[in-house]
Automatic annotation (TrEMBL), chain A:
Gene Ontology CC terms, in alphabetical order: membrane
Official protein name in the record: Cytochrome c biogenesis protein
Cytoplasm listed as a keyword: no
Transmembrane domains' residue ranges: 42-59, 96-116, 196-217, 469-487
Membrane topology: Multi-pass membrane protein
UniProtKB/TrEMBL annotation, chain B:
Organism phylogeny: Bacteria, Bacillati, Actinomycetota, Actinomycetes, Micrococcales
Protein name: Cytochrome c-type biogenesis protein CcsB
Segments forming domain Cytochrome c assembly protein: 139-351
Domain of life according to the entry: Bacteria
Subcellular location: Membrane
UniProt-listed Pfam families: Cytochrom_C_asm
Keywords, comma-separated and alphabetical: Cytochrome c-type biogenesis, Membrane, Transmembrane, Transmembrane helix
GO annotations of cellular component type: plasma membrane
Molecular function, one GO term: heme binding
Transmembrane annotation, as ranges: 14-32, 109-133, 145-162, 169-190, 202-227, 265-284, 299-314, 326-347
GO biological process terms, semicolon-separated: cytochrome complex assembly
Length: 554, 356
């Protein structure tokens, strides 16, 4: 492996064969590869990734809020253009950000694969040979078994091996025929395995996120009470498919908004009027002809159809309006979606009536749920609940420009080719309508009435394949991380010999690979086990037989 | 929808102020301890340098065993010599490298800890009454994150004190907690109230509690890493025969011990932050329909995660242990603070529920 470990008190876990004199292209490539997969590069790339992620929080991002980017570009034409050329408004899809994380993952693969291979080998090979001088190990102790115990050097090794095995070590007894037999033991292979699993899972997460971006989609829909949405492309107000999305995969479910309830805070003073509950009652059908089912949609409780989820992301008022034209015909009748702009639902209203004759009609203005007048006589809303609903509109007539075939924003009325009929500055004044009221337009252009009020909800509809994979790999990564951080990889060697006077001498030493602050605790635990096994007096070596973890905790 | 109890809420605010007052006194006691102890130490040193030297091995007896290691069969370098054992004795300190309690009595420190415990009890009462007043978990806005987070920091500190003598951290931790409580009451004050619908989820309990706990742990490691930097400088100065300054640092364990302990805490904190990230993503999927959307708060949570991952890497990279790793730990904490203060208030995103 290429990682260079310098854990305190630890040997480099393994050393790379020293590079042969770099010869030609091959040598260069090898050198470059070694650089890319070095621990230092990984660290550098990680820190670079952290820094590179920051601009995305400083500047508006297109995928999150395209309108904010447009505004920023308009407000800062020069710097904006420059920043845009640096992809600062789409940081997380930018070439430089992608380059960093791709390099990081290449480095990761280059790091992990050889490590995995080495670890596989280590797992299958026998514990390393017994060092000549155990006393040099970070943990070292000796014991002596009086001749009276009758435990021979060989017996002691067999016992030690059995005890270590029971404690989860892989053991290897050697030199049993020599005067000084020994046992080598090793445990904690899961530590390294955990580390490998952690890093590999990160790749899994990345791949699954990619799958979602390729094959997923998201769309928005506004649903007024009583309306039904059928999941087809034309049903959406806005639709953003993934690169490889196939519309044929859309589930043909249908959703009807039966009722939408909102509750505002009426108790606290400082948060008075803040929303505390949004509940949408839906009737859903798995397929068009299917059986209707009642479901509740709330902010934190989406409704799922298989992989596709419906999420409640917005709501507002939809005043029901009827417009009669100059010919006395009903040219429009129905709820109009108003767009709230503040906490008390002061909402903008745009009504386009292309069917009106002889002239097309247009209205813009505000809907106020709880209208009240201030000192200057200007109406505003004082509460989000519809305590005194009111429509304040200006009216226009002329050509709405809808026949040109160019797509128009339904929430904006282009007044370029229109003549204004009503307004605060005009003799006729503005239109102010309470529920049930009708206003007759000047010049015989028709009339408008405010017939009632409905609510609407804005929903996001999304399918993100691979999402389950992201979760699974994340959890796998956490499991690997825990194993890597909290399992200790340790080696133990025990050697015994017989003293000329008949005593059996035992020595043992411990070595940790990687950070291990509980090595001393393990030594104490082994001491206790051995003492018990050979019926030695408790005080034979050290007075403290405190619980393994608290004893000499380093 | 639970009923709001304003009276309980007012009691809670009173408790918070009382706790802040108690902590302030504890802070003074901790500072007094540092000043007094370092003075005593200097006097002792001057009188009997040998006697002091003879005492040290007793205090660090256990650690002595593990510092024997020099080389092994792997032919590895004598790491123990390069990175000396945790004992601070070598650099003229008295603090135990294991951060175990020694027999020596430090009256002001005892007073300080007693006061901190008292403060924590009052503080805890404040957190609990807040929870009952609002009829929900007490972490739904900035005021509550801060007051509950400060309590978590103190609780973690006191829990660690049961096993380790981290009293040298007292001034820093208690000082930070006082700042948190004061900031909460002055800048972020919000009376008890209901949660907005976006926060009404059991994920609030899981996600935020882990975030608060991890932040509390990072608060401790931040203090330790900062001390580590000071201590490392002092050790360097001492090694080259310089003056022993600042004197109170003799109460503080060696830079290496600090590094080891803060590494262990940072590992826990990182694990917690990983959970914060994952649970946050699960919640985001439920609330907003996507598990990750690079919302500003998500960006910074990610940045923090990567910085601490960098820290863990640094600890395994030659040339990056010690001082550099400590800097990463500090930068990580600064990101945590930034994420909480600046991002919550001045960046708009989906997480705009600061309650301000
Ligand atoms: C996606 C980027 C990466 C992240 C987020 C990451 C994260 C982490 C974390 C959190 C740890 C500490 C926990 C543990 O010991 O398992 C760690 C350890 C480690 N990482 Fe990474 N890593 C990344 C990439 C890499 C790369 C590219 C390499 C190889 C060059 C690498 C090599 C290692 C090694 C060798 C360790 C073990 C250190 C030790 O023994 O203490 N990692 N990584």
């Amino acid at each position: 492996m290429t990682a260079q470990q310098t854990n305190p008190g630890q040997p480099p876990a393994s050393t790379h064969p020293v590079a042969e004199p770099a010869l030609g292209v091959k040598g260069m490539l090898r050198w470059a590869w070694r650089q890319v997969t070095s621990m230092r590069t990984a660290l550098f790339l990680l820190l670079l990734l952290a820094v590179a992620a920051v601009p995305g929080s400083l500047f508006p991002q297109r995928p999150v809020n395209a309108a904010a980017v447009t505004r920023y570009l308009k407000d800062n034409p020069d710097t904006g253009k420059f920043l845009d050329s640096l992809q600062m408004f789409d940081v997380y899809a930018s070439t430089w950000f992608s380059a960093i994380y791709l390099l990081l993952f290449i480095s990761l693969i280059g790091c992990v694969v050889p490590r995995a291979r080495a670890h596989y080998k280590a797992m299958r090979s026998r514990p390393p040979r017994t060092p000549r001088r155990l006393s040099r190990l970070p943990e070292y102790e000796t014991m002596e078994l009086p001749a009276a115990t009758g435990v021979s050097a060989r017996q002691a090794i067999t016992d030690a091996a059995a005890l270590l095995k029971k404690r989860g070590y892989r053991v290897d007894v050697r030199d049993t025929d020599d005067a000084m037999p020994s046992v080598g033991a090793e445990r904690g292979f899961l530590k390294e395995a955990g580390n490998l699993i952690f890093h590999l899972s990160l790749i899994g997460v990345l791949v699954c996120v990619g799958i979602g971006g390729l094959f997923g989609y998201r769309g928005q829909k506004i649903l007024i009470e009583g309306e039904t949405f059928v999941n087809t492309l034309v049903g959406y107000d806005a639709f953003t498919p993934g690169t490889n999305f196939d519309p044929a995969t859309l589930d043909p479910f249908a959703v009807t908004l039966d009722q939408f309830d909102v509750r505002f805070d009426r108790e606290s003073t400082r948060q008075f009027g803040q929303p505390i509950d949004f509940t949408a009652a839906l009737t859903t059908k798995e397929e068009p002809g299917g059986e209707g089912r009642q479901k509740i949609l709330k902010v934190n409780e989406p409704v799922y159809f298989g992989e596709t989820g419906i999420f409640l992301v917005g709501n507002g008022y939809a005043p029901i309006v009827t417009v009669r034209d100059g010919n006395g015909q009903t040219a429009f009748s129905g709820p109009v979606v108003s767009v709230p702009s503040d906490g008390v639902y002061t909402s903008s209203v745009t009504i386009k009536v292309p069917d009106a004759g002889p002239d097309q009609l247009g209205f813009v203005g505000f809907f106020l749920p709880s209208a009240i007048k201030n000192d200057q006589g200007v109406s505003y809303s004082f509460d989000p609940d519809p305590l005194n609903p009111q429509l304040n509109l200006n009216s226009y007539y002329g050509d709405l420009g809808l026949d040109t075939g160019q797509p128009q924003n339904v929430y904006v009325l282009d007044v370029k080719d229109l003549t204004q009929l009503n307004g605060r500055d005009l003799p006729a004044g503005g239109i102010t309508l309470g529920p049930g009221a009708t206003y007759t337009l000047p010049e015989g252009k028709g009339s408008i009435s405010f017939d009632g009020l409905k609510r609407y909800i804005g929903v996001d509809i999304r399918a993100t394949p691979g999402q389950g994979g992201v979760l699974a790999f994340s959890l796998l990564a956490v499991a690997g991380l825990m194993a890597s951080l909290y399992i200790s990889r340790r080696r133990v060697w025990v050697r015994t010999g017989t003293h000329p006077d008949g005593r059996t001498m035992v020595e043992y030493g411990l070595l940790a690979r990687g950070e291990d602050h509980r090595l001393a605790g393990e030594t104490a635990a082994l001491r206790e086990l051995f003492t018990k096994q050979w019926h030695l007096p408790d005080t034979s070596h050290a007075p403290d037989t405190a619980p393994a973890e608290t004893a000499k905790d380093r | 929808m639970p009923v709001i109890n304003q009276t309980l809420g007012q009691y809670s605010e009173l408790f918070m102020l009382l706790a802040a007052g108690t902590y302030t006194v504890a802070f003074i006691a901790f500072a007094w301890d540092l000043a007094k102890s370092s003075k005593t130490l200097q006097a002792v040193d001057r009188k009997a340098a040998e006697a002091a030297a003879a005492k040290v091995p007793v205090a660090v007896g256990a650690a002595g065993v593990s510092s024997n290691a020099t080389a092994s069969d792997d032919g590895r370098p004598a790491d123990a010599a390069v990175r000396p054992s945790s004992s601070n004795a070598a650099v003229g300190g008295t603090a135990d490298g294991d951060m175990r309690y020694t027999v020596k009595r430090r009256i002001p420190a005892r007073v300080a800890v007693a006061l901190t415990v008292l403060g924590a009890l009052i503080h805890g009462a404040g957190v609990v009454t807040r929870a009952f007043g609002a009829g929900r978990v007490p972490w739904g806005n900035m005021y509550e994150f801060l007051t509950t987070g400060a309590f978590a920091a103190i609780a973690v500190f006191l829990l660690v004190l049961l096993r380790r003598d981290l009293r040298f951290l007292g001034t820093f931790v208690v000082g930070l907690v006082v700042i948190m409580l004061v900031a909460a009451s002055v800048a972020y004050w919000t009376p008890v109230g209901h949660l907005v619908p976006a926060l009404q989820s059991y994920w609030l309990i899981i996600h935020v509690s882990i975030a608060v706990l991890s932040s509390a742990i990072f608060t401790l490691t931040f203090a330790m890493s900062a001390l580590q930097l000071v201590q490392a400088r002092r050790e360097k100065a001492l090694a080259s025969g310089g003056p022993d300054k600042p004197a109170f640092m003799r109460l503080v364990p060696s830079a290496l011990s600090l590094e080891d302990l803060s590494y262990r805490f940072n590992a826990i904190g990182f694990l917690g932050w990983t959970f914060t990230l994952i649970f946050g993503a699960i919640w985001a999927e439920k609330a907003w329909g996507r598990f990750w959307g690079w919302d500003t708060k998500e960006v910074w949570t990610f940045v923090i995660w990567v910085v601490y991952a960098g820290y863990l890497h640094a600890r395994a990279t030659r040339g990056w242990t010690g001082t550099r790793a400590a800097w990463l730990s500090i930068v990580g904490y600064l990101c945590v603070v930034f994420n909480f203060t600046i991002v919550n208030q001045f960046f708009n995103g989906l997480h705009s529920y600061s309650g301000l």
